[in-house]
Structures are given as C-alpha cells and as structure tokens.
Amino acid sequence: MRLLTAFLTALMVTLPGCASLDSGEGRILQSWKGAHIEQVFRNWGLPHRQAKLSDGNTMYEWGSSQSYTMPGSTTGTVNVIGNTAYVNAQTTGPTTISGKCTRTLIAAPDGTVLEGSARGNNCCVMAIAGHCASLLNPSAK
Predict the structure, then answer these.
(1) Which domains does the chain carry?
(2) Backbone dihedral region of 19: left (phi > 0), alpha (psi from -120 to 50 degrees) or beta?
(3) Is the dihedral of CA 42, 48, 102, 10 positive or negative?
(4) Could you read off the pLDDT tens digit of each residue along the chain, which spans 141 residues?
(5) Which residues pair with 61 in a beta bridge?
(6) Per-residue DSSP letter, 8
(7) 3-state DSSP of 102-136
(8) How is residue 77 annotated by DSSP?
C-alpha cells in the first residue's frame, strides 16, 4: 500500500509538464486554436476568471480540482510457538491526495482562440476517453 501511495504521489508531482504532451493537454488546447471562445463556453462552461490584456486580447481561465482517498491497510506477521500464535500487525490510515489543473485560453478581440496553456498536478496526460476526451473541441478535425 505504501508503494502504491508513493507511486501515485510521484506521478502527480511529475504531471505539471503534461501540457506539452501531444496526447493530453497539448492536444486539448490545440483543438480549440482558431475556434470562437463562445464554443469553448458551450463545452467547458463559463470561465472562473477572465482578464483583458494590454494587447487587446482576453485571457480566460478554468480551474478544476480533485481528491483521491486511498484506503488504509493492515499488514502483519504471525509467529506460532507451540499452541500459541503471536500476531504483529501494523495499520496505516487512509491517505488523501489532492490535485488541481488550471487551463488558460487567450482569445483575440474578435473572440478567436489564439493559444492556451495548462498547469497543475492533475492535468490530462491522455485525451482518449472520459473527462479528458470531453475537453476536446468536438468540431476539430
């Protein structure tokens, strides 16, 4: 159990660079390039934050967070001496791992998406199925 927890923690720490992967965030963000920001709103919902930039473009930001709770476990050994069994047990409690991802899109004054980025420890590594696939632009080729 400790090995699994350590592996999941290490995986979440290494995911911040995932936005550059062709199969994950990079693919998601690229699918929206050239689309109108209204299309993004219809698929992702309204952004959590937006700001007008000095160059006339607008930055839109969506944030998401998710927590995973790994159950606790008990491991032990049993030593039998004569007719008596001696148990040595060790119990660990549940562990919660939290992750976040912030996606940012920049749109021109006419609403055309120019670029995007993602940061966090719970961004999409792959966009093949599930939640990550639902973030792709359905109109993209």
Answers:
(1) 2-68+97-134 (3.30.1450)
(2) alpha
(3) negative
(4) 454 444 444 444 444 444 444 568 889 999 999 999 999 999 999 999 999 999 999 999 999 888 878 888 888 899 999 999 998 989 888 888 888 999 999 999 999 999 999 999 888 876 666 778 889 999 886
(5) 49, 104
(6) H
(7) EEEEEECCCCEEEEEEEEECCCCCCCCCHHHHHCC
(8) E
